[in-house]
Write a structure and sequence with these properties.
The structure holds 2 protein chains of 2 kinds. In chain A, the strands form 2 sheets. A 6-stranded mixed β-sheet of chain A has the order 6-5-4-7-8-9, with helices on both faces. A 3-stranded antiparallel β-sheet of chain A has the order 1-3-2. In chain A, α13 links the parallel β7 and β8. By secondary structure, chain A is of the alpha/beta class. In chain A, 51% of the residues lie in helices and 10% in strands. Chain A has 17 helices and 9 strands. In chain A, α2 packs antiparallel against α3 and α8 runs parallel beside α10. Helices cover 51% and strands 13% of the residues of chain B. In chain B, the strands form 3 sheets. Chain B has a 5-stranded parallel β-sheet. Chain B has a two-stranded antiparallel ribbon with strand order 3-4. By secondary structure, chain B is α/β, with parallel strands linked by helices. The chains are: A alpha/beta, B alpha/beta. Chains A and B meet through β1, α9 and α12 of A and α5 and α6 of B.
């Protein structure tokens, strides 16, 4: 690397070490997700040679000026900076400083309470078995690679913390395409499509009256996507994963509107626009106060239909509803079921297509026995699983081509639901005929789980 | 603009009232500021609360021309701002012969067709016109972006001609029904006002103005009933326009006082969704009506 030699002798003596430390620091920044290119790193090194290391504040801003490119990265950078450069003798000992911290992940009591989890994760990689300085990088890389090899079919609920982290980073990088529709705007093209008379005349007036044909066709436009995600207790293992999925989608696609519902319905669209996924999830958890409670799906849909659907469902939006369909209202509550039926129907009719993601589909022999699931099924176009990386991958691949036409699987599901309904009726009639007490606990238990045992 | 058209908010409010538009303080202040500061006024609200009406009224009050641009999806520059008259240009080419350097003669104002936005920037004999950009939420985002230049600098750039700037900025009123969110960049350039449903007193005043044929008692019953309906969590609550329509319909039917049958048979004037109608028609309507009549009797007793 060629660069102007510094005038300050202090920096001059320490230069090689300082360069190395800045390099390490940049590597740390990259691992926590800041987009720092090599050019920025060179800038940072040069900036430090000019600024010097006498003042911590100046040093901080010299690095920040070179390495931060987006305002939302400031918080993360600040914390990484203070953690990395906190030792006053860091010039000599930065490598030693980094390693001891690695050995005690999570138990470091004087770590700031609000330290972002991603930063601690980045520092908490398993310590290298080989203490040699030169091999650190290779070991880091291998550790990351082995972490990424997480099972595609493993249930999110069964994953360990590490596996979940790896899965989330995969989900973050999915950038599915959304369904398209014809726009009313025209796009010119060389051949095919309709004659563009206006464009032909426009060209003719520049070509001394020579009229050559021009062609045009309708532009396509991404359909808006509305996501309604259940955050009640029965969904708690999945809602966090889905938040990351929604965040990834919102970052890539402009017209994604997202809502969470438990006891209340919350619009989280704006929060999901934060670049940093952890900041977004933190903001969501601050705003939503009914995590892991119960849910009344019908009344939430009613609120959505009344207050939001006209605002976010314009231009032929598709809807994804993420819930296990287990309503807090008891099965005997007919009015709650009626509301659910009515509001699902309305949602279905106002959507281009309605996709239901249900984690209960992780069970092989799942049968839609619960009343609320049976009520919702006739009003959806697609009924898909979402419990593993594989199923999320499948969904992302399908999302663009998923259309109005109902999937073949859905017909099977609906038949199963009808059969289950008949069975339920038969059960109750049979029980009444025998005048014996209805084995309520047995039936209800089976229905609640929705699983054939 | 040659001086402020209104000295105070009260004067504006009084002038609007004389013209037959009864505005509450919030709307009057926003409108006053928009006029005083020559900034666009962005009005958002449910359908039928009088957003478009205010622009029409303002045009009448100030004696200005009203230029209206109704937005729809796919609206583009050729329909909103300007277009070249290509057919005319071709004729010109034929007449002059091929040898003439086309560009100099063809791209002049003679061949320019002005659409609403460009027309609003041109000088008008009655002073700067009122430009009403109606239901902006129906146009797509690309069109919003095009408006940014117009709304901040009062100019339109035509590549072949150059920049056309307004000597005096028009009075711009933008309305939206909120079927989607308008971008913050556009909202930032405007004064914003959310037009809400009027309260009972205001609505009564509006009704007295717009449907004077209805008897006073009937007016009070109508307003009470409509206000009651708006408490009902309907999919679409009736707006002021519906109230006026209903009053006029009832007058047409020679009705002097509301009764449940009359309410049921004219429900379609007030509510436009079958779900809402089936919920309200019958016992629910009768209940609201009874409450309204009771409260009217009570207020007369206390008087």
């Amino acid at each position: 690397m060629t660069r102007p030699r510094p005038d300050e002798t202090v920096v001059g003596a320490l230069q090689p070490k300082l360069d190395q430390n800045i390099m390490l620091f940049v590597r740390l920044l990259r691992r926590i997700g800041l987009p720092v290119g090599p050019a920025s790193m060179v800038d940072a090194v040069e900036a430090v040679t000019v600024i010097g290391v006498a003042s911590k504040s100046l040093f901080y801003h010299a690095l920040a000026g070179c390495l931060i490119k987006r305002p939302e990265d400031q918080a993360l950078f600040g914390q990484a900076f203070h953690l990395f450069w906190q030792n006053p003798k860091f010039m000599e000992r930065v490598r030693d400083l980094l390693l001891p911290q690695i050995k005690v992940p999570g138990v470091d009591t004087d770590a700031p309470e609000d330290m972002l989890r991603r930063l601690s994760d980045a520092l908490a990689d398993p310590p290298p078995t080989n203490q040699g300085d030169d091999t650190t990088i290779e070991i880091d890389a291998s550790a990351t690679a082995s972490d990424r090899a997480v099972s595609q079919t493993k249930d999110f609920a069964m994953m360990s913390g590490d596996e979940m982290t790896a899965a989330l980073s995969v989900i973050k990088n999915l950038a599915p395409y959304l369904p398209q529709r014809k726009s009313r705007r025209w796009r010119q093209q060389k051949t095919g499509g309709q004659l563009a008379i206006r464009a032909a005349l426009r060209a003719a007036s520049r070509q001394s009256g020579l009229v050559l044909p021009k062609f045009q066709s309708h532009q396509t436009k991404t359909r808006p996507l509305v996501i309604l995600c259940d955050v009640s207790g029965s969904m708690e293992h999945y809602s966090r994963v889905m938040l990351h999925f929604i965040h990834g989608l919102t970052q890539h696609q402009p017209a994604v509107h997202s809502f969470l519902f438990g006891m209340n319905l919350t619009n989280i669209t704006r929060l999901m626009r934060y670049r940093d996924v952890d900041e977004a999830v933190l903001a969501v958890s601050n705003q939503v106060d009914d995590w892991s409670g119960g849910t009344l799906i019908g009344s939430n849909l009613q609120r959505f239909n009344r207050e939001w659907s006209r605002r976010v469902m314009a231009e032929g939006a598709s809807v994804i509803i993420i819930t296990d369909g287990l309503d807090r209202a008891p099965d005997e509550d007919k009015s709650a079921l009626q509301t659910l039926d009515f509001e699902m129907e309305r949602l279905h009719k106002s959507a281009y297509s309605l996709i239901w993601l249900n984690p209960l589909l992780r069970f092989d022999g799942f049968v839609p026995k619960s009343q609320s699931i049976r009520t919702m099924l006739p009003h959806v176009d697609h009924f898909l699983p979402m419990h593993s990386l594989q199923s999320i991958h499948d969904l992302a691949g399908k999302l663009q081509v998923i259309g109005k036409r109902r999937s073949r699987e859905l017909v099977t599901w609906q038949k199963l639901a009808r059969d289950a309904a008949k069975m339920a009726v038969r059960h109750s009639v049979y029980a009444q005929m025998k005048a014996a007490p209805i084995p309520a606990d047995k039936i209800n238990k089976g229905q609640k789980n929705g699983v054939v045992t | 603009m040659a001086g402020k058209p209104f000295e105070t908010v009260e004067m504006l409010q009084a002038a609007l009232r004389d013209g037959g538009y009864i505005a509450n303080d919030g709307l009057s202040v926003s409108l006053f500021l928009a006029l005083a500061k020559s900034r666009p006024l962005f009005l958002e609200g449910e359908a039928g609360v009088g957003k478009t009406e205010i622009a029409k009224m303002l045009a009448v009050l100030l004696g200005r021309d009203l230029i209206r641009l109704q937005c729809y999806e796919g609206l583009d520059i050729a329909q909103a701002a300007y277009e070249w008259n290509y057919a005319q240009q071709l004729v010109e080419i034929q007449m002059r012969g091929d040898a003439v350097a086309a560009e100099d003669h063809l791209f002049t104002k003679k061949f320019l067709i002005e659409r609403p936005l460009l027309r609003a920037l041109q000088p008008h004999p009655n002073g700067p016109p009122i430009l009403l950009i109606d239901e902006l939420d129906r146009a797509d985002e690309a069109f919003e972006a095009y408006l940014l230049e117009l709304l901040s600098d009062w100019q339109i750039t035509i590549p072949e001609l150059g920049v056309i700037a307004a000597e005096e900025p028009p009075i711009v009123i933008i309305t939206s029904n909120r079927t989607r969110e308008i971008h913050d960049a556009l909202k930032r350039r405007c004064f914003y006002h959310w037009v809400d449903y009027p309260d009972a007193d205001l609505e009564l005043a509006i009704l007295a103005e717009k449907a004077p044929e209805a008897a006073d008692d009937l007016q009070r019953q109508i307003v009470g009933f409509v206000q009651g309906l708006r408490q009902q969590n309907l999919f679409k609550s009736p707006g002021v326009a519906e109230t006026i329509d209903w009053a006029q319909a009832l007058v047409e039917l020679n009705c002097v006082a509301l009764d449940p049958q009359m309410v049921d048979s004219t429900m379609g004037v007030l509510l436009k969704y079958q779900d809402d109608i089936s919920r309200i028609q019958g016992s629910e309507a009768a209940r609201i009506l009874a409450e309204v009549q009771a409260s009217i009797v009570q207020s007369e007793m206390s008087r």
